[in-house]
Every structure is written in structure tokens, then in C-alpha cells.
């Protein structure tokens, strides 16, 4: 759809993509390892997908969660698919730390403190891409 | 765990339960059909579960989404598993309407207007329980 930002080429750092979905690193200032899984097709709800594609989507989501946990060891993972503003299926995979800007609130909620987040180093960003790629490949083959 | 509220008997309206998880209606004043899927075991992250149990959890989540869409036809479904305050796996399945209190923001975000939500009628609540039960049973058998 012409007016849907997720139907365009992503402006974000692309970590992995196949013909079904892509994994991007949002380069969020407060949450430097914040990833998003975006379906390529303009589909609104998970239950608009047939069950096999729901399962495929979640395999990618959990592979990204696994990769993030392996590379940066967050205190908690937050998963969400809202789409109120952009009703094109996408999943937020957000590593949380106890000292992050909103913890323990949702990152959509009230801030609790100033952010002390630092951008990912190039080495960590590259490790994240490598491990995401490995974990997604493994998940989709299982 | 003694200090985990989700390790206790639920204070909410129980729609469905098996030996793995339960579905409760939160009776939220702003979001009367807000449901939560709660694992019975005290597990923190989806990727702490083996893949088959992740899939089982998501089948229940999507069955509840299907039931809510069938019974109340929301404008959007929001799915989330955060657990920052209660690190015991649970999924929020939240039907959203364009005129609800926070739309199009997250319901954890800034309110946009006063809520005009009305409690579910007994007939709708009972329909929701019936359809959740049917859809979950069907999903777990497939």
C-alpha cells in the first residue's frame, strides 16, 4: 500500500530478510538493540494469516529473542504486536534492562529515569546480525 | 513462587484452563474484553520454553484473538508479553476500538480521551467464554 511505511523499503538497519519477512534493528536511542520483525505482505492481524504462517512468524520472533539474549543478556524481553498506527503486521522484540529509561514500565509508558543507553558498538551490532541470521535459519529449518 | 501473583489462584474471571495455561478476563474498566493467557508454571521468557510449548502457548493466544474478533469485532488486536513487573509468562490479548481511551496509542501510553467503555453484558461475557473454549480446543487438536 502506497501510504503504509512498512510496505516501503526499510529505512532501518536490515539484519535478515527472506521472501516472507525481514528483521530490522531500529537504532532507537534509548533501546539500542530494539529489533522489529516486519512481514513483507500488508496483513493486519496474526489471525488473518493461515496457522502455518503464524507459526513461521513466531519462529522468527523467538529466534530474534534467542539471538538478543545470547548477544546482550538483557534482564527481560518484551514482545508485542500492536499495529494501531501502522496496521501492517510487525513484532517488537525489545530487550529491557533494570536501569533502562522506562523499567519496569512498558517502554510506551511513563519514563522512570534519564536514559544511559549507549549505541551498540560495531562489533556488537555485527554479532547481533550474525547470531540473528544463524538462529532464524535454524528455526525455519526445524 | 510465593510472592508471584500469577502463581496464585487467579482473582479474575476464568474463561478456560488446562494443565498448561489459563485464559482470564481481566474485567478492566476501560477494556472490558481484555483477556490474558497465563502459564501455570513460573517461567520467565518464551525462549525458556521448549519450542513445542512456545507453539502451544501461541495457539492459545491466537485462539483467544480469534474468539475476541468473532464475538466483539474490534478495530484492532494488540498482543503483548512484557512481564517486567511480573516475570511469569503471560500474554495480553487486548481488543482495541478507534474510540477507546488510548487509541491509537498503546494502552500503556498516553490517554487520548475519556473512556466510554461499558462492562460486557452477561450474554457477551458468556459468548466469549463459549467461543474461547471452542477455539482453544480446536487449536490444540490441530
UniProtKB/TrEMBL annotation, chains A, B:
<dbReference type="InterPro" id="IPR036265">
    <property type="entry name" value="HIT-like_sf"/>
</dbReference>
<dbReference type="InterPro" id="IPR026026">
    <property type="entry name" value="HIT_Hint"/>
</dbReference>
<dbReference type="InterPro" id="IPR011146">
    <property type="entry name" value="HIT-like"/>
</dbReference>
<dbReference type="GO" id="GO:0003824">
    <property type="term" value="F:catalytic activity"/>
</dbReference>
<dbReference type="Pfam" id="PF01230">
    <property type="entry name" value="HIT"/>
</dbReference>
<feature type="short sequence motif" description="Histidine triad motif">
    <location>
        <begin position="88"/>
        <end position="92"/>
    </location>
</feature>
<feature type="domain" description="HIT">
    <location>
        <begin position="2"/>
        <end position="103"/>
    </location>
</feature>
<protein>
    <submittedName>
        <fullName>HIT family protein</fullName>
    </submittedName>
</protein>
